[in-house]
Amino acid sequence: MEYPRITPFQTHHRVVYQNPADESLTADQYAQALAYSLQQDQPGTRILVIDAQATASTDEDFIDTLPLNDAEKTELRQLVALDEREAEESQTQGIDAREQESLAQRLNLARAYAQDTDVLILSEPLTHVSPEDEAAIYSLLEKRIKKHPLLSAKQKIFIVSSNAEVQERIRRDRNAAQ
After folding, report:
1. What's the predicted TM-score (pTM) here?
2. Where are the domains of the chain?
3. How far apart are CA 64 and CA 69, in angstroms?
4. Alpha-carbon span 124 to 28, nearest angstrom
5. What are phi and psi of 123, to 5 degrees?
6. 165-178 burial, b if ≥16 CB within 10 A, otherwise e?
7. What span, in angstroms and rounded, lies between the C-alpha atoms of 62 and 142?
8. 71, 141, 72: which is closest to 106 by C-alpha?
9. Rounded to whole angstroms, how far apart are CA atoms 139 and 32?
10. Which helix (H) or strand (E) holds 50?
């Protein structure tokens, strides 16, 4: 498939927000085109695109299998606004469909963070998460990207989305760059 050439916003930040509407593409199309463009510019770079809207399991046990100490596992749960009680309730009592989708997206985000890659491109990662949780998750990601072992190994994390929180962060970053 032929992808359009995408030039991401140039910033020293390691978390980069991108609006797919800037190129008249869907988030998935933009993410794939961005990966293709980055691979052309930086051959050999390990790039992974994740459609975070894809249905994911709500089984949180995978976090315990990661090569992290207890504090790092706890922090990973915090990075995706994962309340351990909420995960347990989803297994035992069940939760409504909206909460189930939100939990699945946050766990999918944790799985994405755990991938061994240089560049991580996330397509619409938090569409089913409350605006408050979304803002908190992105703020924590920005603060902890250089410190958490799963995040610090990544050169960049691109968030491709057209939602309001991401648009606000794009405006903030572009204004700061001027």
Report:
1. 0.86
2. 15-177
3. 9
4. 8
5. -95, 115
6. bbeebbeeeeeeee
7. 24
8. 141
9. 25
10. strand 47-51
Please answer whether residues 50 and 108 qualify as being in contact, where contact means their C-beta atoms are separated by less than 8 angstroms.
yes
Angle at which helix 70-79 crosses helix 97-113, to 10 degrees, equals: 130
* Nearest one of 134, 144, 112, 107 to 15, comparing CA atoms: 144
Please say whether the dihedral angle defined by the alpha carbons of residues 62, 149, 156 and 48, taken in this order, is positive or negative.
negative
Which CATH number is associated with domain 15-177? 3.40.50
Q: For residue 13, which phi and psi values (nearest 5 degrees)?
A: -70, 150
Instruction: Tell me the pLDDT of the chain (178 aa) as tens digits.
Output: 688 888 888 788 899 999 999 999 999 999 999 999 999 999 999 999 998 666 556 667 778 888 889 999 999 989 998 875 555 555 545 667 778 888 888 888 998 999 999 999 999 999 989 999 999 999 999 999 999 999 999 999 999 999 999 999 999 999 988 8
> Which amino acid is residue 72, in one-letter code?
E
113: tokens are: 């963070």
Phi, psi of 61, rounded to the nearest 5 degrees: -60, -25
Name the residue among 73, 19, 38 with its Cα closest to residue 154. 38
